[in-house]
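Lab notebook, page 48
Experiment: co-folding of the full assembly
Goal: obtain a model of how the components sit together before planning crosslinking
Operator: M.T.
Materials (sequences as entered):
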Amino acid sequence: MTIEPTPPTSASPRAGLNFRDLLLGKAGGGRRRWVDYAFIIAFAILLVITASMSDVFFTQRNLSNLMRQTVTNGLLSLGMLVVVLTGGIDLSVGPVVALTGIMVAGMSQQGLPLFLAILICLVVGVMAGAVNGFFIARFKLQPFIVTLATLGTIRGLVFVYSEIPITPTDPSFRAVLGGGFVGPFPVSALIMFACYPLVWFFLNRTRAGRAVVAIGGNEEAVRLAGISTRWHIFLAYMISGFFSALGGVILASRLGIAQPSVGSGFELDAIAACVIGGAILGGGGGSTFGTLGGVFALGLIDNLLNLFNVQSYYQQIFKGLIILIAVLARRKER
Amino acid sequence: MVTDFLRMQGISKSFDGTQALRNVDFSAAAGEVHAISGENGAGKSTLVKILSGALVRDAGEVLLEGQPVELGTPGRARRLGIRAVYQEFSLVPHLTVTENILIGRLPTRSGLGSIDWGEAHRRAEAILDSIGFVGIGVRQKVQQLSVSHQQMVEIAKAVAEEPRILILDEPSAVLSQEELKRLFRLVVELKQRGTLVLYISHRLDEVFEVADRITVLKDGQLVGTVRPKETDQGRLIKMMVGRDLGEIFPVRNPSGAAVALQASGLSKPGSFADISFRLHEGEILGMFGLVGSGRTQVARCIFGAEPFDSGELLLGDTPIRPRTPKHAVEAGIALLTEDRKRDGLVLGVSIRDNVSMASFDHMSRWGVIDRWVQAALVREKVVELDIRPTVIDRLARQLSGGNQQKLVLAKWLLTRARVLILDEPTRGVDVATKVEIYQIINGLAARGMGILLISSELPEILGMSDRILVMREGRLVGEFTRAQASEERVLASAAGVVQ
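Observation: model returned without errors.
Model output:
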């Protein structure tokens, strides 16, 4: 095989751990490029324009709303990122949000202590992920198909559990997770912000995390290096299930009502956030904090268009365009 | 003076500041086989890719029959009659051989516009026949073919367009001896028809056999053009690396020692049967066989990458039956696979990750990798094997072929395996790196590692092995000591020729 040395593709080589990588948290390897900086700058410009046009945007109330609204997608995207890094996809996150939301509300209504209800829901989320992971890892089925199937199945289970929305009467249901504040910061947002470094640490500093990233690059090479690819793929879907459950519980708590129909289309926002943040569907690249950027970009667009009273159909159109632009801008990278 | 058929003048090309080609003047005549040699990174591929339109030159001129031509894109080059066959196949795996060969020009029934499959298959067959590639079913899907047959389909597809210039980039890497002979016959025939064949290969014996002239590149510059009759391999290597390499194969001092790995009666229906051998500590045991003889399957089964049906394995004096590569690695067996890009490396992650991947357990506490320990271990191997660049956070993708191969080797050295199976360890590696790898292998054997060396390069097998096993059609058909072995005897045994 004749392989000419690939020309250096970007910035100068750097030894060891470097601050920029740490800051930007590129899990899939590879270097930051102008695209990433362009996004950050575009983001900043957007904020400046908004600030000058709307006097509501920079109020504490709006900012805390913005944060609380992004929490669920923020958590789902985090789980999605782990799955996408293995080269997979998880379409079933929306129904898991609905299932855990309705369960936590239902159990709370039946008088179960809240923390216990939440714990059970997190376990349910992990189990849902385990089902996905089992079929995908054990039988080598396509992640798209398996999670498409569970997307329907879990949605059905939600309606089996309750056809009607549940509104728990216990005031603590709303108070802590969804409505609580520490100083000016919403509790839910703090939880989400805490999860990002954790996942970054998992992906970059642990044995399992590195395996997850490598599997997306070349599964067979990882298997032949004596690493159980089955287990790590299984693990990735359980992680996604866990974050979906956390997102579901927080969403129900924030709204104070659990709708069985909630969460349709959530998987698309999560995938979009990952992709805007630099993830490559099919594996081989993705960034934890890039994904957070994607989450905020999407959240911000929603928020701004709301402030300017733009109809939600237009929001969809804008989102679609943003995703296309993001993917186009990154096209050259590969 | 006669104008050269092809003339490339003052060709320069750089990638992000790295000068891949520097003012190269290259010319070749119609009806000749012109080999282009050089180490990895010498600029061979860059040069032919400029010619085939895959890359655009920074400076210089390309003249065809004295006329300057603009290449620019593969399509334009193709219309000028320039066609390239690269190592990376351009076949569509789930389409048939016929569709792949006739892609874009399948015959249609007049009037209806539907594809005339009978005619299509006949044409594809005729093309394969005419170039001597028999035994490939045109109705088969490409993904069902062996790699060597895929390579032949790729070549057939190119030849079917009757190019004036045919570029063959490492065509022999996956071909068996028999197939290689057919390829050579084809090359000679094309030459007689007036085609210019540009032939790139690492295998010098091949180059000497087939080429009329050899042009040597080194560090992006043209060193010179020679005729095989007027030089020898030693002198050519000297041109390529700029110095004498000395002995290619290091001297072996095997010592009789304990058995490291013993296989008895390993069988897997459809792949191999009744494989029994002993590999001693500190021994290099060569395993030779033509492509498809089952060598790779045996290696994969010992490593747990595939299951085997019956038979026993002893590692030292412990019976083992690795069900997954994980078991094998934990037991102390390592396998360097034949295709580093397919299953040896994760190109998108760093040197650090690739080298330490099989040893994460030794450098982690509670699942968290100790980055300092990891960096120290990886750097040690990078220095030991002279991997460049030495920056361990570079991506594997950014390394040259030879360095990538060393990376895979480093991964297994770090595991401190007792038995190392090497499946084609020097495939696609330049001569200088080859010599380095041979020395590394020898060093490992000297430290007591048992090494099973699988190769389809006879000189490599003969030069490196203490003993040689020969496989044919899934069975062990011969065993030679170093003293007994000769090229003719090993090859005869592998081909099933009675002596």
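Interpretation: The first strand of chain B starts at residue 6 and ends at 15.
Next step: discuss with group before ordering constructs.
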